[in-house]
Amino acid sequence: MIKRPIETHRKYLDKCIHCIRFCGIWKFDSSASTYHKLMNLFGKIFNPTLLIFHFLTLFADIVANYNDLIIIADDGCFLAGSFTVCFKAYEFHLLNNIYMKIINDVHDSVDVLQKSCDLGVLTIIKQYIFFETLDFFLLIYVVTVLGVGLIVLLPLTRGGLPVRAIFPFDVTKPLMHKIAFFIQAYNISFGLVTIVALEYLSWGLMRWTIVQLKVLSSNYRNCNSDKVPIASFNVTKNTYNKIKNFNILKVDDEDIEIHNFIVFEEKELNSINDCFNWRFRTCIRHHQRLIKIIYDLNDIFTVSLLIQLGVSTFLMCLNGYLAFMFPHDNQRLIRSVLYLVAGFVQLLYWCGFGNELKFQANDLTTSQWMSGWEDKFDGGIKNLVTTSMIRTMQPLEVRAGGLFILSMETFLSILKTSYSVFVLLTTVSDEE
Predict the structure, then answer these.
(1) Which residues fall within 8 angstroms of residue 41, CB to CB, at 6 or more apart?
(2) Which domain holds residue 121?
């Protein structure tokens, strides 16, 4: 056996977890250094304190300008985005142990899949690692542009602070202005770094659950032990070279076709009683495990996703309107475009992952039917297949607030709704 051809898929996951701990949202392990523990304690105290103070200055500006809808809209956009970040951070802090359990449940099985000798499985994982890396840098790019726009460009266009606010001290004095600028810049940077870590970790849970659903779907089709072998962990030199020379642009349908029955746990290789019955029951067990993972994802994401949908819709409607109504106001135009893009990207990714998960889960019914059960003359097997198919007919979906299914249909519906509200706002403004 030679060394594994795929690098760990946990590379950026570990970075995000480390970042979340540095921000004070999660605790470091007991084995962590004193420096890490002190930084964690500092983050727990300093970050919330500064955020609360910043929010109070924004509320003060809203109260002082309660009769100016444009100012309220500007402040409201920033508050809405900041509230989403803070709520997700609080949810991650509150459900720390649950998140860590789900992370292990999802990623431990992928660690085993990476050891498989099947070229199709390794190619699929390599594909997803490539897109995960691409998404990470795309997310970093988006928040960097947003951060530079808010912290650098906006103050340059109006010679003031990044965000409107009323401080309990005179910000016209050089020292006080620097303190106010630091508070706002730090909070914006903290919020952007936090949302990158939280969103990327959450998307990873969705992404690698989808990979396991793909492999499970293939396993159902490969339950015939007379025709399809079980994949071992002994990677051939040919497979190793193909994966090492992986090129995303040259991957075709044949490369991602799985030709073996794949194990999700190392102990399964030591307890094989290879027959159709054993394979199908093994598939059912992992199917139930993935169902539980998806239910757990719904439990922890449902409220934050509902807020996410609401805030993204709000940001796209309002900032589209502000950008359209004030095209010559550079400061407002920059901020509106930045908020608009941020809300659009977040919504697109969540709905995209939800759509793919739903598709892969629905494909399991077809895969069970194609398992070759009709060639077996054991009546118990037919009952087993029938019972399991009834279960797969119940949709597996990620829902926001238990109401809205995350899918491309939902994404398009939100865009249509946002556009309708945008048209209504511009029409009312023209009439006035």
Answers:
(1) 24
(2) 9-249+278-431
| Mean pLDDT lowest among 72-76, 128-132, 294-298, 326-330 | 326-330
What DSSP state is assigned to residue 29? P
Burial status of residue 428 (CB atoms within 10 A of its CB: 0-12, 13-18, 19 or more): exposed
The angle at the Cα of 333, spanning 329 to 339, to the nearest 5 degrees, equals 155
Tokens encoding 416: 């249509």
Task: State the sign of the Cα–Cα–Cα–Cα dihedral 163, 166, 170, 172.
Answer: positive
C-alpha distances out from residue 168 to 56, 178, 379, Å: 10, 14, 78
Neighbours of 188 (CB within 10 A): 22
263 occurs within a structural domain: no
Domain membership flag for residue 182: yes
- Is a pLDDT exceeding 70 seen at residue 1? no
Quick one: tokens of 345?
Answer: 């990207």
Cβ(83)–Cβ(91) below 8 Å: no
- Which DSSP symbol is given to 400? E
Q: Which two tokens stand for residue 43?
A: 């983050």
Q: Is 261 helix (H, G, I), strand (E, B) or coil?
A: strand
pLDDT at 154: 67
C-alpha 222/C-alpha 229 separation (Å) is 9
Closest CA to 12 of 148, 144, 103, 143: 103
Report the predicted TM-score, pTM, of the whole model to 2 decimal places: 0.89
Coil, helix or strand for 230?
strand
> Using CA atoms, how far apart are residues 339 and 318, in angstroms rounded to an integer?
10
Number of domains in the chain: 1
> In the prediction, which pLDDT does 215 show?
93
CB 373 within 8 A of CB 276: yes
Residue 366: HSE in the Cβ half-sphere, 13 Å Cα cutoff? 8
Assigned domain for 256 exists: no
